[in-house]
Design goal:
Blueprint lengths: L7 H28 L2 H17 L9 H20 L12 H6 L1 H6 L2 H9 L2 H11 L5 H8 L3 H22 L3
Helix pairs in contact: 1-2, 1-3, 2-3, 3-8, 6-9, 7-9, 8-9
Length: 173
């Protein structure tokens, strides 16, 4: 055991970190499972928690989950660069088995909607998915994006508008 590991300060940090993992592990695993191979989701979530432990002094106590999501975005980007040689916009979605297991994903992976989402651009897509899949808005979305609350609200509004326009252009029925 490292020197000082049984101090009250270290004990409080361990308690805080344990609570963070218990409270947010499911959300992080879902975040990764929605964006890549399900078999990697738990390992990637563990990597985010390892970063949170190492950088625990930098994690804002009032906005832990947004900080974790932001770190998860960087972790996922690094993971993709290591394992996939394709440009990000050409990375195939995971198979139909994953989609058929989750009714929400079945709707989201409809060909028309996928095409509309793909056409809005990476930042808009990130904002829309953080809002739709992770339920972020307001301060949490601002924290993940690293911008002000009003900036996040405006970015979400613009992303929604672009998606509506793209969806309208794609409707073939």
């Amino acid at each position: 055991m490292p020197e000082g590991a049984d101090s009250p300060v270290m004990s409080a940090e361990v308690d805080w970190f344990t609570a963070v993992v218990r409270e947010h592990s499911t959300a992080l695993v879902r975040y990764f499972a929605r964006r890549g191979p399900r078999q990697d989701a738990e390992d990637l979530a563990a990597e985010v928690f390892a970063t949170a432990w190492r950088r625990r002094d930098d994690v804002p106590r009032e906005a832990v989950l947004p900080w974790l999501y932001r770190t998860a975005g960087f972790t996922l980007a690094n993971h993709r660069r290591k394992h996939i040689d394709l440009p990000v916009d050409e990375v195939p979605e995971t198979g139909a088995a994953r989609v058929s297991e989750d009714p929400e994903l079945s709707v989201l992976f409809d060909a028309e909607l996928r095409g509309a989402l793909a056409s809005v651009g990476g930042r808009d897509r990130q904002i829309l998915l953080l809002h739709a899949w992770e339920g972020l808005d307001g301060e949490e979305l601002a924290e993940v994006l690293g911008i002000s609350r009003s900036g996040a609200d405006a970015a979400l509004s613009r992303a929604r508008k672009r998606l509506r326009e793209a969806w309208g252009e794609r409707l073939s029925f």
